[in-house]
Write a structure and sequence with these properties.
726 residues; 5 domains; seven-stranded mixed β-sheet; six-stranded antiparallel β-sheet; P-type Cu(+) transporter; cell membrane; ATP-binding; phosphoprotein
Length: 726
């Protein structure tokens, strides 16, 4: 299966997005199609052997919309600015033509008789000349949209607008012809249709402008992209476009300039401001061998670096991709709104017709004009747009706000489900602790010549954090030849050196072959009670040395745990002994722990918690903890900017800060709360507004104004999420 995202133009309301989804999802070769009204994008997962992109575009075109590939710089597309400008100009021209017609409304109210209305404004032909271009040129988009919808046996907001304004416009023409040659006042309603279209155009302009602000986070990220860089080529330093640079090229980065691409420093040392990517305001010191992220700021010294990632593989582009995917996908909460949108317009038309017949035959005794006003008011006050915008706008702003803090929600579902969590499980090493253990004590039980050489040589074969710590501690030792090297996953390593059998690992691993004395067990307990991880060095059939290593907790972990425990159960998993784990847990304030956990057992523990009806969040490094991250209801991958384990997690923290976990939970809670507010407003607006209009309490132009600004208010409410404090 192949997944692609396309830009869609021509959508006006939720019914438009639903129609595209329905048509695409009918195709057997398409596994899933989702359309985001706010972003004006469609994400399609399809079988390229059965259908191609051109065929998908054709299907979208056949129902009256236009699909095209996303431009390379579409995040800050000029098209968006041009469309906004076009919408503004249409409103201004419509307002200019509608103002004289608006003035004629004074003639309809007897209590405003004292306001003079020029005779020219009341002339039917003059009103027709002003109303016609508004109706069919400036308001032509509604007729086009309505025709496309009806042709495909569906209905949308355009159908309602076209019906309501056409009723007023053509009724006015009918009355104009009927009274031709008769002197006196002619009851015309050209101003009703003209003012309605003008107000709706104004609402569309405000809506499009507000929707543009909703995607500010993506635009800010895209704006960080550097356009060119200084590159070594054939012994010279030349300025090249980013597109021309390849992995392995050497780039020069001056002090005070932005790093163009992800790279590894090969010369010099400096201080990097990564706040634009990670949300971390404190500069990070970098030297030879360290990775640097493209679009971050080199604050200190000149450096040279070798490019490690280009194009879509850049950390910045990965972040943008993840945020866009989260904004495109639909959360479960939107399903109800989609179902209602499907039947909304036909239901409104039925209510409007019923109200018209009720008023015409019963309430007004055949007053066609009054009954028509009721019909128009009911038609135009209904607003499916508010329903369609309620969820995606909040998701877009919420996930964008999270990205600004270096929090990446992989999908809308993860943003929605995070608020349901009641239990948070932390992996100890690298998550609660720094992931850089150091040797704090050694105890010799057998004097063995060259034992340091044995330890360094064996441990240098492993990539385990404890191995790195041991190699660093015994850095002055010599490397010797090893035979029969073997890794015992979750336990330790072994090999043959100078004819001796060497085993290094956990004391339970050592105890599987030899018996530990009471003195050894007591020494082990004392070290572990201080929070140390204790490993043994076995040579032949004797325990030669016991080594204690301690991995210090990260800054602010204790305070973060304290905050979380106010609302959640906090659990710690570790492969360390029970004594070590309990010591660390006491230090951090964690009550629930699991010790001696093998890597393959973590997912089973998560599953056990879920079977006890807990909604579990797992926080790990995203690589070693992949199975447990997948098993959990919400998996959070802690990572540096160059190691975002997106595939196995639901949420990724660009910066390795556990203190962001409360912010993740807060953003989820506030975003879903915002969605519910929007849906409540949208439902209440229609549930209350339609009966009021049917009861005759709203003039058509008042109903049109309410409809135009209902969707704007939904978008503005969603934009409040941008003000959430970091």
């Amino acid at each position: 299966m192949k997944e692609e995202t396309y830009q869609i133009s021509g959508m006006h309301c939720a019914a438009c997005a639903t129609r595209i989804e329905r048509v695409l999802n009918r195709e057997a070769a398409i596994e899933e199609a989702t359309v985001n009204l706010v972003m004006e994008k469609a994400t399609v997962k399809y079988n390229p052997k059965q259908i191609d992109r051109a065929a998908i575009f054709e299907k979208i075109s056949n129902i009256g919309f236009e699909a095209h590939e996303i431009e390379k710089d579409n995040h800050i597309s000029k098209r968006e600015h041009q469309e906004l400008k076009k919408q503004r100009n249409k409103f201004l021209l419509s307002a200019l033509l509608a103002l004289p017609l608006l003035y004629t409304m004074f003639a309809h109210f007897t209590f405003l008789d004292f306001i003079p209305v020029p005779e020219l404004l009341m002339h039917p032909l003059f009103q027709l000349a002003l109303a016609t271009p508004i109706q069919f040129i400036l308001g032509g988009q509604f007729y086009i949209g309505a025709w496309r919808a009806l042709k495909n046996k569906s209905a949308n907001m355009d159908v309602l607008v076209a019906m309501g304004t056409s009723a007023a416009y053509f009724y006015s023409i009918y009355m104009m012809i009927l009274h031709q040659g008769h002197p006196g006042h002619v009851p015309l309603y050209f101003e009703t249709s003209a003012v309605l279209i003008t107000l709706i155009l104004l609402g569309k302009y405000f809506e499009k402008r507000a929707k543009g602000h909703a995607s500010d986070a993506i635009k800010k990220l895209a704006a960080l992209q550097v356009k060119d860089a200084l590159v070594e080529k054939n012994g010279e330093v030349v300025n090249l476009s980013i597109d021309q640079i390849q992995v392995g090229d050497i780039i020069h980065i001056k002090s005070g300039t932005y790093i163009p691409l992800d790279a590894e420093i090969i010369e010099g040392s400096t201080s990097i401001n990564e706040s634009m990517i990670t949300g971390e305001s404190i500069p990070v010191d970098k030297t030879i061998g360290d990775s640097i992220i493209g679009s971050t700021l080199n604050q200190a010294n000149f450096i040279k670096a070798r490019v490690t990632h280009v194009g879509d593989d850049l950390v910045l582009n990965q972040i943008i991709k993840v945020v866009e995917e989260a904004q495109t996908k639909k959360p479960q909460i939107q399903r109800l709104a989609d179902k209602i949108s499907n039947i909304f317009v036909p239901t409104v038309v039925c209510i409007a017709l019923f109200a018209f017949l009720l008023w015409f035959f019963i309430l007004t005794s055949f007053d066609f004009t009054r009954s028509l006003e009721i019909f128009i008011a009911v038609i135009v006050i209904a607003c499916p747009c508010a329903l369609g915008l309620a969820t995606p706008t909040s998701i877009m702003v919420g996930s964008g706000r999270a990205a600004e803090s270096g929090i990446l929600f992989k999908s809308a579902e993860s943003l929605e489900q995070t608020r349901q969590i009641d239990t948070i499980v932390f992996d100890k090493t690298g998550t609660l602790t720094k992931g850089a253990p150091e040797v704090v004590d050694t105890i010799e039980f057998e004097r063995v010549p060259h034992i340091d050489d044995y330890i360094k040589s064996l441990e240098s074969q492993s990539e385990h954090p404890l191995s790195h710590a041991l190699v660093s501690h015994f850095k002055n030792a010599n490397n010797v030849a090893i035979q029969n090297y073997e890794t015992h996953i979750g336990n330790g390593i072994s090999g043959m050196i100078d004819g001796s059998s060497i085993r290094i690992g956990s004391l339970s691993f050592i105890a599987s072959e030899i018996t530990l004395t009471e003195d050894m067990k007591q020494q082990q307990h004392q070290l572990e009670s201080k929070g140390a991880t204790v490993i043994g060095v076995q040579i032949n059939q004797k325990l030669a040395m016991m080594i204690a290593l301690r991995d210090e907790p990260k800054p602010n972990v204790k305070e973060t745990i304290r905050q979380l425990r106010q609302h959640y159960e906090v659990v710690m998993l570790s492969g360390d002994s029970q004594t070590t784990v309990e010591a660390i847990a006491r230090e951090l304030g964690i009550q629930h722990t699991f010790a001696n956990v093998k890597p393959n057992e973590k997912a089973k523990i998560i599953e056990t918690l879920q079977q006890d009806n807990h909604k579990v969040m797992m926080v790990g490094d995203g690589i070693n903890d992949a199975p447990s991250l997948i098993q959990s209801d919400i998996g959070i991958a802690m990572g540096s900017g160059t190691d975002i384990a997106i595939e196995s997690s639901d949420v990724a923290l660009v910066y390795n800060h556990i203190s962001q976990i409360p912010e993740v939970l807060k953003l989820s809670e506030l975003t879903i709360k915002n969605i519910k507010q929007n849906l409540f407003f949208a439902f209440c607006y229609n549930i209350i507004g339609i009966p009021i209009a049917a009861a005759g309490f709203l003039a058509p132009w008042v109903a049109g104004t309410a409809m135009a600004f209902s969707s704007v208010s939904v978008v503005l409410n969603a934009l409040r999420l941008k003000r959430i404090q970091k």
